[in-house]
């Protein structure tokens, strides 16, 4: 057996990786030729790679490392819990202290009467749980035909077959197919799809598509509507202000369940504990994962309101994961929540860090490539465009320009992601103003280099 260590030469690690490791969301053959970047350690907002480069993580891993890297407290709690009770399940009339404590804490933090928690290992399986929850809810109320879930195009709700069907990513649907009784309406993406409408008018029009869908499918067929308060993986799409109040009105009027997928927005990302507080919505169910443990261990959950929990509880719920409420994951998540709360990280985001980041982010509008700059709390996006006035798309294949820009960021040791030709950030919530300044030095340099490159390659052209 080969012993694989941090001290192996990068090229050897890359060759072994290419030989045996299939990467998610990657063209693996091409990646194997190029070689993946090997990350060896991390502290605060900084990653170190196998070449000793220090990289500023503008994405908090995958939107999850809210408290930053390298907090010993979480390692200590994990070690202690592994020694005491490394595993026990929560099926068949058993429970344990970490899961009791975490469920109680989540009920306390969650708004309104979201007081009941069903655990999973991440966001995808939590959304699978939600599909079963809402269908079982209506079955138990004697309305088993009420089983259609309405979602949105370009939404991300996970990567399992059911949660990707629930999501609205066309590329994922093309590979894994759909499941029955999921219906998609359009997203509130004004920049790309608003046409000649003013943002406020467009927001209302897109919300009213929910009402139209309910009327068309039948109120007695629609079980629930699911949405991210701010679409994350779709490109940090922030709906116009008119959108969410109208969605809430429609859900109330037709009595359909509202599921807020808070996997990214939860645990401080938007400047409140949950995105639904920032946007003024009242969900019956919230999906959580990512920031709940700051990514240190895999854990997710559905947080359920009193009434839905009561109806589900009327009968046996034929559902559960081996790792539902895993004691080590629960103990680590609880410690993460303690840190977020005691160090007032969410308050600091709301009052200090997010306003500072917003000012710097919106100032990017002075850059020749940047047409729109959107930000809520600590998640932001910019739309790259060859013509700001007409909100033009590039003539090149969508994503070409975004990819060039991302590669420049990568080279300049700042992690930003591209979604098509939008660039997005979601840094650890603990990033300091000085680190934000450093991040913008690197972002501006990368944008300038990308601008020069696309100019040189003749790509600065609008689509017809
Ligand atoms: C990441 C994400 C998921 C999926 O979570 P996993 O832990 O990757 O399964 C679901 N919903 C949203 C909004 C996400 O961002």
Automatic annotation (TrEMBL):
InterPro entries: Aminotrans_3, Aminotrans_3_PPA_site, PyrdxlP-dep_Trfase, PyrdxlP-dep_Trfase_major, PyrdxlP-dep_Trfase_small. GO terms for molecular function: pyridoxal phosphate binding; transaminase activity. It comes from Ruegeria sp. PrR005. The keyword Transferase applies. This is Aspartate aminotransferase family protein. The keyword DNA-binding does not apply. PROSITE patterns: AA_TRANSFER_CLASS_3. Belongs to the class-III pyridoxal-phosphate-dependent aminotransferase family. NCBIfam families: PRK07480.1. Pfam families: Aminotran_3 (PF00202).
């Amino acid at each position: 057996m080969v012993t694989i260590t941090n001290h192996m030469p990068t090229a050897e690690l890359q060759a072994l990786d290419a030989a045996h490791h299939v990467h998610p969301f990657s063209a693996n053959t091409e990646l194997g030729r190029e070689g993946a970047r090997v990350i060896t350690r991390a502290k605060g907002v900084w990653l170190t790679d196998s070449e000793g480069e220090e990289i500023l993580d503008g994405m908090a891993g995958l939107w999850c490392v809210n408290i930053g890297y390298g907090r010993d407290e979480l390692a200590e709690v994990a070690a202690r819990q592994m020694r005491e009770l490394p595993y026990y399940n929560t099926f068949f009339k058993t429970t344990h202290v970490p899961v009791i404590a975490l469920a109680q804490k989540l009920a306390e933090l969650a708004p309104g009467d979201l007081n009941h928690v069903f655990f999973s290992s991440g966001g995808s399986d939590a959304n699978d749980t939600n599909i079963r929850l809402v269908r079982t809810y209506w079955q138990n109320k004697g309305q088993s035909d009420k089983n259609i879930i309405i979602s949105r195009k370009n939404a991300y709700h996970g990567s399992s077959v059911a949660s990707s069907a629930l999501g609205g990513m066309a590329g994922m649907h093309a590979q894994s197919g759909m499941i029955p009784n999921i219906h998609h309406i359009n997203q509130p993406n004004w920049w790309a799809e608003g046409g000649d409408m003013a943002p406020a008018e467009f927001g209302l029009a897109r919300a009213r598509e929910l009402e139209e869908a309910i009327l068309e499918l039948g109120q007695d067929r629609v079980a629930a509507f699911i949405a991210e308060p701010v679409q994350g993986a779709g490109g940090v799409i922030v709906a116009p202000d008119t959108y969410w109040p109208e969605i809430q009105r429609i859900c109330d009027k037709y009595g359909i369940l509202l599921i807020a997928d808070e996997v990214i927005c939860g645990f401080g990302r938007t400047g409140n504990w949950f995105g639904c507080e920032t946007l003024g919505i009242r969900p019956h169910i919230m999906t959580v994962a990512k920031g709940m443990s700051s990514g240190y261990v895999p854990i997710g959950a559905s947080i359920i309101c009193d009434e839905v929990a009561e109806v589900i509880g009327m009968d046996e719920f034929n559902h559960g994961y081996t790792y539902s409420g895993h004691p080590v994951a629960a103990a680590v998540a609880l410690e993460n929540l303690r840190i977020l709360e005691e160090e007032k990280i969410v308050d600091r985001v709301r009052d200090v860090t997010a306003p500072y980041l917003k000012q710097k982010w919106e100032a990017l509008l002075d850059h020749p490539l940047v047409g729109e700059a959107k930000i809520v709390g600590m998640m932001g996006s910019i739309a790259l465009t060859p013509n700001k006035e007409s909100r033009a798309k590039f003539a090149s294949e969508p994503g070409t320009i975004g990819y060039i820009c991302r590669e420049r960021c990568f080279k300049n040791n700042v992690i930003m992601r591209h979604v098509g030709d939008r660039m997005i950030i979601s840094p650890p919530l603990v990033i300091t103003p000085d680190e934000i300044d450093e991040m913008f030095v690197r972002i501006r340099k990368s944008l300038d280099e990308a601008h020069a490159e696309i100019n040189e390659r003749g790509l600065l052209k609008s689509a017809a």
